[in-house]
Design brief:
The protein has twelve helices and eight strands. It is α+β, with helices and mostly antiparallel strands. The longest helix has 29 residues. The two termini are about 40 Å apart. The structure holds flavin-adenine dinucleotide.
Length: about 375
């Protein structure tokens, strides 16, 4: 069987590499190095705008929504290549929320929102999790009450990542408190500039920034509702599947493995005599290859308009577990120097390993915990009893 990509995919990849090389500036590199989850600075914002201006993200979506109609595979390739190069990308907007709006939004919403996303004018944060609703998301309490031509929103969300950068929040709120908990939730597109919204930083390990968001009598128009009222649970679970496909990208790990191997060969060849070094590197590259297979399968499913559930859970868990295992093993290989911070001139790989190692644990939880994803694989994938 021939697994090679078609010629125009190869060309598109080359176009992305060319774009990255033209827009990779020292200012951008410096911002990315200090970024983690903080959010982007002006150089990264300029990079994202240039990406939109050159029309690279528009490749995938249908022409009626401002795209070039090539299909989701191309957007996946763009995300993967940007991730591989460590470049900024708004994965939640492009890979989760927008495809969900394409699937569940009205024609008017699609024609309004999607071209704005492509132009870089609309970016989303995800408003799902609350202080008492994480894994058990269906228990969420944030209320949306209809008042004439408007919805009035009151409540609190936590871990609203990117809310300090986004223009809108993709919000899940309770619209029928009397219905069974999965059947009283609806989804909304809420401009973050609406009066009554407060965004407060929430810092997590690895110098990561996410946010708490507060909604106090926030009034949005009736047509901010996406999909059928009270059917939001089913919309959100599909959006979460797509989010996990994106989170499950193996490309940053691929880069880490290649960089560590190059570092060992060029600067620490003394360590290569140790069989443990070879074992660590071999195990890591094997994990990257499995990640590639899972990600490619997910990309093919999304391209063919399927929503991967078990497959997305597998990719998310594999990526998270592999990151921790690979970064841990490389810490062992590099010994005391592996833990040097990026501010230290002797830090191997500019301190990248130390930063990644500290950033790993929160990713067990983001997008749904790895424990719960294993349960999804067992029950929804393998049909085992709950
Ligand atoms: C870095 C980061 C970014 C995030 N970004 C966003 C975002 O942008 N938007 C958003 O809405 N949310 C976001 N989240 C929140 C994330 O989705 C939640 O952390 C996740 O859903 C888990 O919820 P919880 O943290 O409340 O954990 P809990 O649900 O309290 O779980 C705690 C522990 O108990 C286990 N557990 C819970 N229930 C069960 C069960 N029934 N059976 C077995 N084990 C169980 C879990 O696996 C976990 O280990 C983010 C989280 C992190 C860490």
């Amino acid at each position: 069987m021939d697994f090679r990509m078609p010629d125009d995919v190869v060309e598109f990849r080359a176009q992305i590499h060319d774009f990255i090389e033209r827009h990779r500036t020292p200012e951008l590199e410096a911002e990315i190095a200090g970024h983690h989850l903080h959010g982007y600075g002006p150089a990264a914002e300029a990079f994202l705008q240039a990406l939109a201006d050159e029309g690279l993200p528009s490749v995938a979506w249908p022409e009626e929504y401002g795209g070039r109609g090539k299909g989701a595979l191309y957007l996946w390739i763009l995300s993967e290549e940007l991730a591989r190069a460590g470049m900024p990308w708004d994965t939640l907007t492009f890979n989760s929320v927008s495809p969900t709006i394409m699937r569940h939004g009205s024609e008017e919403q699609r024609r309004d929102i999607l071209p704005k996303v492509l132009a870089g004018e609309m970016r989303f944060a995800l408003g799902y999790t609350e202080p008492n609703a994480g894994t058990d998301l269906a228990s969420l309490q944030t209320r949306a009450v209809r008042d004439g031509d408007e919805w009035v929103i009151n409540g609190q969300k936590i871990y609203t990542s990117s809310a300090h950068l986004a223009t809108h929040v993709w919000l899940a709120a309770r619209t029928d408190p009397d219905a069974p908990k999965h059947r009283g939730i609806s989804t909304f597109v809420v401009p973050l500039s609406t009066p009554g919204i407060t965004v407060r930083p929430l810092w997590v390990m690895g110098e990561g920034r996410t946010n708490e968001t507060f909604y106090e009598n926030v009034r949005i128009p009736a047509d901010a509702l996406v999909g059928e009222e009270n059917r939001g649970w089913y919309i959100v679970t599909g959006a979460l599947d797509l989010e996990r496909v994106a989170i499950g990208t193996y490309r940053p790990l691929e880069r880490m493995v290649q960089d560590v191997v190059a570092y060992l060969v060029n600067e620490r060849s003394d360590l290569l005599d140790d069989p443990a070094t070879r074992m660590a590197v071999a195990d890591a590259s094997m994990r990257v290859e499995v990640g590639r297979a899972l990600a490619t399968n997910n990309a093919a499913m999304v391209h063919n308009d399927m929503v991967p559930t078990m497959e997305a859970a597998m990719a998310k868990v594999w990526k998270g577990d592999s990151s921790e295992r690979i970064h841990d093993a490389f810490m062992d290989v590099l010994g005391r120097s592996g833990g040097l911070h990026e501010s230290n001139e002797h830090a191997p790989l500019g301190g990248m390993l130390e930063a990644e190692w500290r950033s790993d644990p929160p990713h067990r939880f983001a997008g749904g915990t790895n424990d719960i994803q294993r349960r999804v694989i067992a029950t929804r994938g393998l049909q085992l009893p709950r």
